């Protein structure tokens, strides 16, 4: 069973790529180890613990592939402002959408909501062959691309295979793609919490001595007292926090957040995720491309991971559609390196910036503490510099794919 293109992984990034390519005349198979079922949803449902901070560029991509109505029709939480401060000093900075005449900085959306909005669009498309419960066992290069063997014995072939199967990508492993990776020696605790005061449609981030703590605004059935938290801490501290009962955890969280939204009144079940940065040395080889977390994972410091992945998908779709239009082979390295040349520098720059922030705010020496506090204060006094940062966060600058442009 041969296709022009097989996308392995029907998560947010892989599904977006499939939808971006629909209707062009390509034969596309989208396979995933999961069932690919849309979950029943009610506005009063508890929040999923994993969320994404979708930028304006990501919203445009999701709109243009037909998934945004299904996402917005479930539950999204817009945010208009961002407050960042150093818990070990007096430096702080405030960003606002109004500074660049935008309505919002972005939307905090549960990953499950994004996924189900994409699944709605996929199932409505009719032109994409979905293969659920399809676990990849073997991957072999052939004269005409790649041969895939699934756990049930089924064999598939394609001119181009795209790995969109996450940080622990089976495609990347089976194809022998080399990576650079390192452990942050930190874990992230994620959950949803209800605070005494409304979240003010603001993303809050405090840099503590143990690691950054983010409160991201959530809205459920018009209740704006909820936030998604991402609390980065050393492994030992994360284990201690995870062992606390809910009341003690809420008290510790309130203290760490300096009670910016009053007391933390309740918390949903917590997840603890080890933090590791990973970057593939190459995104492409003949007949193969890596996108999203299969190509790069980044510190959750600024919630940029999924935004980078959606841009990968949009750029790769643009490159492949241009190649198909001129009758070029999709798996040709001359085609695929165009994608790599556009995305790798942008992703590396974002990863380096996040790494720099993480190291600066983890630094204990007094001169570095002085430097970061002075830097925050200086930027707060420079509206032009802040506006530049906001435009970058919105996805309004750089080499944008057509799907992400205004």
Automatic annotation (TrEMBL):
Residues 4-347 form the FAD-binding domain. One of its GO terms (biological process) is ubiquinone biosynthetic process. Gene3D superfamilies: FAD/NAD(P)-binding domain (3.50.50.60). The keyword Flavoprotein applies. It comes from the Bacteria. This is 2-octaprenyl-3-methyl-6-methoxy-1,4-benzoquinol hydroxylase. Pathway: Cofactor biosynthesis; ubiquinone biosynthesis. GO terms for cellular component: ubiquinone biosynthesis complex. One of its GO terms (molecular function) is FAD binding.
